[in-house]
Automatic annotation (TrEMBL):
Membrane topology: Multi-pass membrane protein
The species this protein was found in: Novosphingobium flavum
Residue stretches of biased makeup (Low complexity): 1-16
PANTHER family: DNA INTERNALIZATION/COMPETENCE PROTEIN COMEC/REC2 (PTHR30619), RECOMBINATION PROTEIN 2 (PTHR30619:SF1)
InterPro entries cross-referenced by the UniProt entry: ComEC_N, Competence_DNA_uptake, DUF4131
TM ranges: 77-94, 100-119, 126-146, 318-341, 353-371, 401-418, 424-443, 463-484, 496-518, 525-544, 556-573, 580-596
Name used for this protein in its record: ComEC/Rec2 family competence protein
Domain ComEC/Rec2-related protein: 296-577
Keyword Mitochondrion part of the UniProt annotation: no
Example of a GO cellular component annotation carried by this entry: plasma membrane
Amino acid sequence: MSGLAAPGSASPAPSGTDAFSAPEPATAYAGSQRVSGDSSNRLTAALQQAPWRRPAALSRLVDGLEHFVASAGFDRAPWLAVALGTGIAAWFVLGAPWQWIALLAGLLGLAGLAAMLLSREGRFPYLRAAIVSVALAMAAGSATIWTKSVLTGMPAIERPSFGEITGIVVSRQEQPAEGRTRLVVAIRDPYAHQRIIRVRINVPAARDAASAREGALIRVRARLMPPAAPMLPGGSDFARIAWFQQLAATGTAISPVAVLQPGRDGLLDPLRRSLSAHIRRNLAGSPGGIAAAFASGDRGGIAANDEDAMRDSGLTHLLSVSGLHVSAVIGATYLLALRLLALWPWLALRLRLPIVSAGIAAFVGLAYTLLTGAEVPTVRSVAGAMLVLIAVSLGRSALSVRMLAAAGFAVMLIWPESVVGPSFQLSFAAVLTIVTLHGAAPVRAFAARRIEPLWARALRHGAVLLVTGIAIELALTPIVLFHFHRAGLYGSFANVLAIPLTTFVTMPMIATALLLDLFGAGGPAWWLTGQSLSLLLGMAHFVARQPGAVTMFPTMGQGAFALFVSGGLWLALWHRRIRYWGIVPLLAGTLWLAFLRPPDVLISGDGRHVAFATLAPDSLLMLRDGRSSFARDNLAESAGMDGQITPLDQWPGARCNTDFCALEITKGGRVWHFLMARSHNQAPLGETAAACAGADVVIADRYLPRSCRPAVLKADRSLLEQTGGMALDLTEATIRTVAESQGQHGWWRPGTSPSPRASSEGRASQGPAAPAGNQ
């Protein structure tokens, strides 16, 4: 956070006495003289009685820590995975190489110091081991992500490119619901021809070629852009994602794709495409798209309105093959194989059926992962499922915190960048919540088997399922709010019905229909599958239409998110009364969230889009109301608003002409004068300088002359290229920028913002540089 003042400019001094001004030197000197005599003696005595001055007290403190760590037992091990993830997250938070080096040096120094000092007396083996192992795990996490960033990160192209490209197709993803195909193509960098890069190109259906498959050599005219940095502070960082996915640019095809040399299909690619096409022939519309997503991982056939309804109802996780689907396939295979093999007495007497069944389930799980495209979240899920199968075959608990920690440890070593992504956080938080809840003594006692009527058992299991859904929703809400600025209030209730419907009805019916199709008898099964998916979509639309179904929040800071994460982990990973101390940071984070307010002004990184979030209730005032919903959605999410979008020139308090808009806002005990450019017309320098002199904040998507000197901030293209998007808090007179959260990571490149598009209203200026009244 920095003061709301540009370099070289000064804010007008507020009237009245500044409550935060320093005392006069004479007063300060007199105050210092009063710390003498009796007061000085009392201060000296207090310092001498401090714990660090009393070896006995310090020893008792260390003894208490040693006893705590020694008595923790198996609760200690999962914290190593937390330490590894903390080290990875710290690397992302810290912004400069010297800070990363200092972090590693500090952690290694702490480990060495603890080993040296605590080993002298030999009295604290558990505390010594805990400090050393946690420090080394954190250092390993930071070193791992730093190493992967250096070795695998793909720098973006220098600037936007437009022209003909020739390259080899790396992957192809068809999206029929959106009328396009997404190709990842390996080409030569248009600005550094010795470098081979990968670019992602969206190809409209009319310009696509069916033979442009993996391995094909193609030629196409395309417009390429560097991967986009966050549009606003706290927004989605696609540039970081592209860095680790080795994408140097994204773009759109503007000519038909010409296939110069056909490619070779992978082993499972024809099966995946034919399976998806077969399902869509039997099920039309979004039900067919969802069924194809379950069976082959192809999400392209789901209509946009249905996908929005699934998102707003908290069911969007069902649309991508992830832990739920992998667990359902592997679990069903294991149980089915175990029951069927048990019918063969000769085999059951000679082999350990759990091990055989686990092997069969592992094979099916791997095959399902490969068939659905082996996306990183699916691979993470199947890796965790493999550990569960190993535990089951060895007679250990199938789900435990230690097993989850082992899975997380393996995932973070291979994909350390996933720690800061929503997929990793949501999946592991959901499973950890389930394990923690069902490991609690009251829940175990309530869910224990007993002799009772069937209806009573069904009610009891339904209650457990409902409580589990509510607990998962509560655990995931901070993560969803942090990444997406929105959360569904009724998601837990929707998931209580949707997850069993998907797991025990839809997916088995899809498998049954495909099996019966071998004999030409799959029609009834497809009809039942379609009915279950229509019920799922109907449920999603019903929940999404309810008042308050979606709650919007402004951008949550990293501090509040850290409170939620630390409190949740403390509550979940300990099994003694000390775990309840985790409620304290959770309450602190909740209070932080309750008092969260949106920024007054939001400025996009290119300066084209400016939004005012606090001028009108339930309405976001925007300088430009373009045809694309991308900017509107980003501005609304960052402001935590889901209300009406009002163009600024229709607001009674704004004064707008073709070239500029002027606005006055009373905040923080003063009146702020804003001046915003609407066109690229070059006004006379004198009029521009006069207009800027009468403003506190000037915003433009182009370069402004040096003679434009507002009182506080000149957010033109020259500044925004260095800072990225901005969020202004006029009450506190502070600025947050995208650059603050980026540091010197490889994916952040100041000064490479794309040139703003020419205004459709551009013309030679005929009038004054600013609206009347602001001269």
